[in-house]
Protein 1
Amino acid sequence: MLSALIWIPLLGAVLVTLLPSAWGASYPRFLSLGLIGATVIVSILLGIQFDPSLSDFQFTEQLPWIEPLGLNYQLGVDGLAFPLLVMNAVLTLIALWSSDRFTVRPRLYYTLMLLLNASVSGAFLAQNVLLFFIFYEIELIPLYLLIAIWGGPRRGYAATKFLIYTAVSGVLILIAFLGLAWLTGSTTFDYAVLKQQTLPLTVQVALLGALLVGFGIKIPLVPFHTWLPDAHVEASTPISVLLAGVLLKLGTYGLFRFGLGMFPDAWVLLSPWLASWAVVSVLYGSFTAIAQKDMKKMVAYSSIGHMGFILLAGAAASPLSMLGAVMQMVSHGLISGLLFLLVGGVYAKTGSRDIDLLRGLLNPERGLPVLGSLMVLGAMASAGIPGMVGFMAEFLVFRGSFPVFPVQTLLCMIGTGLTAVYLLLLVNKVFFGRLSESVMNLPRVRWAERLPAISLALLVVTFGIQPIWLSRWTEVSTTTLVSHFPTIAQVTAAQTAANSDRSEERMP
Amino acid sequence: MHEFLIQTSWWIPTYGLIGAVLTLPWSMGIIRRTGPRPAAYFNLLMTLLSLAHSVWVWQMTLGQPHQLLEFQWFRAVDLDLSFSLEISPVSVGAAVLITGLSLLAQLYALGYMEIDWGLARFFGLMGFFEGAMTGIVLSDSLFLSYALLEMLTLSTYLLVGFWYVQPLVVTAARDAFLTKRVGDLILLMGVVAVSTFTGSLNFSDLTQWAWAETTVLDPNVATLLGLALIAGPVGKCAQFPLHLWLDEAMEGPNPASILRNSVVVACGAYVLIKLQPVLSLSPVVLNVLLILGTMTAIGAALVAIAQIDIKRALSHSTNSYLGLVFIAVGMGQTELALILLFTHAITKALIFLSVGGVMNVTYTQDLTEMGGLASRMPFTTGAYIIGAMGVLAMPPLGGFWAMLQWIDGLWVVPLWLDIVVLLFNGLTAFSLMRVFGLVFMGEVKPKTRRAPEVGWAQAVPMVALVILTLLMPLMLYRWGLLPGWSAVNWRVAISLMLSTLVGAGLGAWIYANSGWEKPIRFPWKPVQVLLAEDFGILRIYQLSVVLVVSLLSKLAAWIDRYIVDGMVNLVGLFTLVSGEGLKYSGFGKSQLYVMTILLAMALIGVVLSFPFLSHLMSIAS
């Protein structure tokens, strides 16, 4: 069942390549839409059979592959991966739908999109750390090409930057995985086996450090983030949607699954630093976003801020904050996907993304009123207005982290306030006011073009009104993930108790 | 049947939301043939249903004990967010007031905005507005109230920004959203903290927690918590220092201003009243409430006198009145706060209805361009007089009784608070008289020459509120909120009346006097400018918060561009690769990226074979 999620798009990619080039661009498009539609259906079937009350991996599959390497084809899914898996399928469908109908080299484009989908699914499903790594690296190639060929004017620079950053990230992750296997003397890279490691704390910290930087590049965390704004600005709209919606989640997913999951003791030790790192990331991303003049760059920096919340929740590692972290991953995926679609829509119709240039696009007859209304909704969702999914995710993150790291949590909350500032500036400048003379006679937006944004907006509102539909998949898994190590609150409490004991001893 | 109506009282806020959703086909331009009117009728119908439902439930709750309705909404790990609704005479009565005023405001909008193309959108937003407000008064959960306050922030933003083409509207909408959002965000911090401390967010549980002997909270924590919790209401009720938005918000359509100045601000105060037990954990917080309330009550009353925009003058007097409510809550007099809110909501709505009629026929909001309307719009003039008398301490109308209770209540009031209320009353009387004199008295100006009386859609709401204002003493009497005649302290009553008369008399002497040349120039120009600019609050904001945020953002962007990214580029790799020779300008140079990929693949290959090598090595050794 799980293999279908990898192999349908993978074989589909081969199929699309084999389509005769004499056939029009619509054949690869509809073929890949159909294939990804099939994976969406498979995900729904999975959802029907998935038992959220189990904490173990479900639908596990195991095939021996390269035994001497300890590399086996092991798949499985739990509540941490399942929402991300479904989001990958849905967002790829949306990205394909919103792809340019008359794109150059359609067969290569759709092949790469399918390849990207397959490798991301594989990474979310892999139960073997080496298998995870392979998928994690494979995903890089289609994405690199998608930016480098179909991107904007500085696509070469952006794509190469992305490639090198992510390659470094991959190397660091691999070092950590290999080091772990080596030091524990394990002959297998099975996640379940490696998880049982009992290495000395200093070694754990070193390995976790490599993972932190490796995944920190992918998430991205300040200061490893500069590839992201460039990549977003140069990538075409559907690629931006996937990049923000799914690929960044690989970083946080990996950090939780392998960092927090395999090195709990080191994680607890580092967690105060991680929480402070999250604060830096959130505030830095938000403040930088305020100063941006390019809408796409602004949304990209807002991603950096919003991904920082996930690190905060992970650092706190309480059952509630972890649930909030997963919800924040989904919520950020949906909301930033929506924002990138809208910014892309504006760019496609006006030819500009400059906040200072655009004005009055809400104009009902000559502007883009529906895109504008959706933008207001997206901005509010991103700013954490209740009734939309972003609020509930952030509330859970804050509520879960506050008992552990009160100061850091409060500082991160300022980040949500700043989100309101820059997105409101964007809406006010671009959509309010009088339509500027330089942007006149815009082409009509067809309903088919609005469909992706509208469906994402509906998801954002639905999960905002009924967050339980989102949290039910994850709750048990995230609780188990952090259940086997002492909560950080307890640790700090124990430390202060020990300190006070000592001081009492000294008293007499 | 009765039980059914009470059990379904969660429908009261829902009607408005349904109405809002029903307007979508018109506001999105899917249905164009019919014009936007059907959307308006849907909303009126929904509000009528909501009013009928709430009146019915209210009838049943009179004299009954409180009833709580619980709805499970979200539960995860140790967090239980259930929505709890309080069905009591006060909460449902407030819902009746809101839906009633909303109905009147919508009927009024039908006339006022007859020719506006965005009518459907406007009604949708009004439905949303009404739903959020009725939700707040019925809610017994701090979480739900917080969420709905944010909804109010959002709908205020959209209603203020309704005429989004005008530049002043754009900044007004922005400021309204951001200042309220600051308050809301600090409130959210308080909500997160209080939820951690108590484990529950229902007001009844919070009250029990606050009153319990076992609750021991560090005084500093209690103070911080209390300050965080009052920040939301401070923003909503436009109290100092988050009061900037309300007068700017007057750029929005008047029917929305009616609600904003009467019940929206009251919603913030209502949440504050609900939070009073938690706030009373810290005496510092109560003192802060007193100080903020006093500053706003007197400061805004002074500022109102210097405004030349008719709506802004009145909105500042709203701020100032809400300052009294804050003082009352700070003194622990929640019942008095409710009476103040009730009398203010109805009378201020009436004043705005009347003023709206004036603006509609003169096409201006500038007080200096008006005059002599009393003869042309006698009915509107009468409505204004009755509304103004209702707000002020003018027996036998509502405002008098509310303020009488203030001074002559069963509680001991420090003398300075008596002086505050007398001063407030005098200043408000002066400023209302000033507006009256400039608009309705004096000479006819060019813009007021052809001013017909308002049409039926605007007249009906005015009549309804005139009747309500006149009946208010009777209502207060029926609810047992009036002291007996024998209990009235005549000295206090007379001093209140005197303050009204002195204020109004002075106002009449200056502004209703044809001997003075208008606009009036005060001898102290700087003072006038200071008050007209609201003590320069905009400048203060620009020099503090706005400056800090913009500097920090510029700094961060600079660091990002030149230090973080600069370092990356300095490594040279990227500048080299991205140089002229490697421009991926077409498909012809595909070998370049193929090469890059090959390099990457080789890298991956090396990396992948690494464990194999190590494995071999381990075998060898």
Protein 2
Amino acid sequence: MTTKTAAPAHTYRDLNRLMSLMTGDEKHGPAATSTLDALWVLYDQVLRVTPDTVKAPDRDRFLLSKGHGPMAYYAVLAAHGFLDEELLPGFGGYESPLGHHPDRMLVPGAEIGSGSLGHGLPLAVGSVLGLRAQGLTRPRVWVLIGDAELDEGSNHEAIAYAGPAGLEQLHTLVIDNASATFGWPGGIASRFEAAGWSAETVDGHDHEALYAAYTAPHPGQPRAVVARVSPKN
Amino acid sequence: MDTMRDRFITTASRLLDDDPRLAVVLAEISRDGFDRAERAHPDRVINVGIREQLLVGAGAGLALTGMRPIMHTFAPFLVERPFEQVKLDFGHQGVSGVLVSAGGSYDWPAGGVTHMAPGDVALMDTLDGWTVQVPGHPDEAEALLRQAAVGEDKIYLRLSLQQNERARALGAGFTPVREGSNGAVIAVGPMLDNVLAATDGLDVTVLYATTVRPFDAGGLRRAVGGRETADVVIVEPYLAGTSTGAANDALVDLPHRVLGLGVGKAELRRYGQMDEHLAAHGLDPHGLRERITGFLGG
């Protein structure tokens, strides 16, 4: 992805350094990096949005619903020029726009504020409906949720509606680090498929597999990509 | 006469024809009424099924793309059940929309407490920036909805079956309906007719309020005039005392007393008719007169 700024484009290798600016650590465990590869591939190769188009009506939208542990998200936003990397060291501070849960009113490029689980998918459904009502059928809406976040009933209201409603512009990325206490017998993807979604499960650290899953056609159906990563515990 | 809910459906359907920014989001309730509008505007009349978290969340998602969502169902399922969606998906996300409820506090007493929401306005009071409107007549509901549709504010429009005999012209704030010198009675929305009957022959000012948030502090101060003390009664068709704090704030510079009348908190566990519930809560003309005169010493 290219940015319009004069600064050199960042690469995947820069993400660890950018995260270190927030965490103070050089190494990051599985919890902090569970979303990193999935986010990188999405922003680097799939989403049609740049720092110059964050207000454009026909941009693609990415909604981070699982707002916990947003360092990887902020690092990816900084790497792509949405926010200034000089903001990263202030992470969580009173004067910083970068909280431990993102706030769309403060973070350039953030489509929603999150933190309370289970809000992003219904917001994404509404975003697709709003785009469709305005004849904007090209933009895609992506929402990232966690496997434990899927416990929240509001997600199931959205999943059960979006399939039959045929919301093709809607995409859910489930980061599965096996953190849901009761698990998902039969698999997470099956929950989406039963509701009429197109769904696929991939290795959440395999960039090629992620890209292929993100870009597979799914005519007339919303799409779910379950990205399996190292278990949280 | 049509009900406020009927008028909401016909008015919103017409507004959809004229304003491409508007969308109506439903959770089955009133869906039949929007049948024609749904056929005319399949992308802007959206029924999400019996899913109220999605009703409000999807409405906010529409707003994120620049649409003006009108979300509608019965009051307990619009404000109370998905309250966190109202709080976060609108307030925290910094977007706006119009919530239109039906059912109020006792529209369907035979349905029991599950379909009553006397606490809705008090709950909305915990949030910042919501305009709360309680019309007393279908014409007023229509006028308020038309204003809400073209605005940018966050609006909660509370409709009920209880209504006044005739519509009033809606001003910017509280409207004086009767002038007197021994205290002021604020009648909110559909309580006006009962308040007028209850205060018949009493030397009191009666103010009519449809927009209760923001609270018309200036209007109340003007109504109590240049006196050294003020006695104020507020009669609301929802939880008693909901606006007592707002009236206190309005009169902070003046020694005053405020009596807040409305629906009681205790669950009656009664079915029956609306009139029986009004009487049980002391909101019929007789009950109101007794408490108003007791308070004012009239």
